[in-house]
Design brief:
Elements lengths: L3 E8 L7 E8 L5 H4 L5 H93 L10 E3 L5 E3 L21 H4 L1
Antiparallel strand pairs: 1-2, 3-4
């Protein structure tokens, strides 16, 4: 028994002027050219025309999709290059920030040492001024510590003409254990 194929041509609402077909096959499915009899050449011709149109439209869509895929691939490559460039720039900025922070920390350390030296010198100058004015307090008669990080101690030595500093023979209050 030969199968009977019913083809309904309908207008495609998404593409005006084009058609698509609903096919229902009863019985064993056969090739379209073999399904019809000699009294249906008109329907076979229409079916071939519809198939040819569908093939052309499919090829056009495939070509458009290939072009779209290629443009998307190129766009993705462009984005990848941009991301790589930004990543490289970010790494350079991180390196620069690290360098600047390291330099800042070194400068802060130098400033702290200089500030401590300044404070020590101020303390020495104040002690000298007090001594010069004769206002030495009792707690200055013992050794005085200047600065927490410097750990330098000076014994009070009165300024007199026979002072070893003025005579060029050494530092006041410098003990022999500190010289070594």
């Amino acid at each position: 028994m030969n199968s009977v194929e019913i083809v309904n041509l309908k207008e495609d609402k998404y593409r005006p002027g084009s058609t698509w077909k609903d096919t229902q096959t009863y019985g064993k499915q056969q090739d379209v050219t073999m399904a019809g009899s000699t009294n249906q050449p008109h329907n076979s011709s229409q079916m071939l025309q519809v198939c040819a149109t569908a093939i052309v439209q499919s090829q056009t869509q495939i070509q458009q999709l290939r072009m779209y895929a290629e443009s998307q691939r190129q766009l993705a490559e462009s984005h990848k290059r941009e991301v790589d460039s930004l990543r490289s720039e970010l790494q350079q900025l991180r390196s620069a920030v690290f360098y600047v922070q390291r330099e800042r920390d070194a400068e802060n350390s130098k400033c702290a040492i200089l500030q401590e030296l300044i404070d020590t010198q101020r303390g020495i100058i104040q002690d000298y001024e007090r001594e010069r004015q004769g206002h030495i307090s009792d707690h200055l008669q013992a050794s005085t510590s200047y600065g927490s990080n410097l750990h330098q101690q000076f014994d009070h030595v009165p300024v007199t003409p026979d002072n070893p500093v003025e005579a060029g023979r050494g530092e006041p209050g410098l003990q022999m254990s500190q010289v070594e």
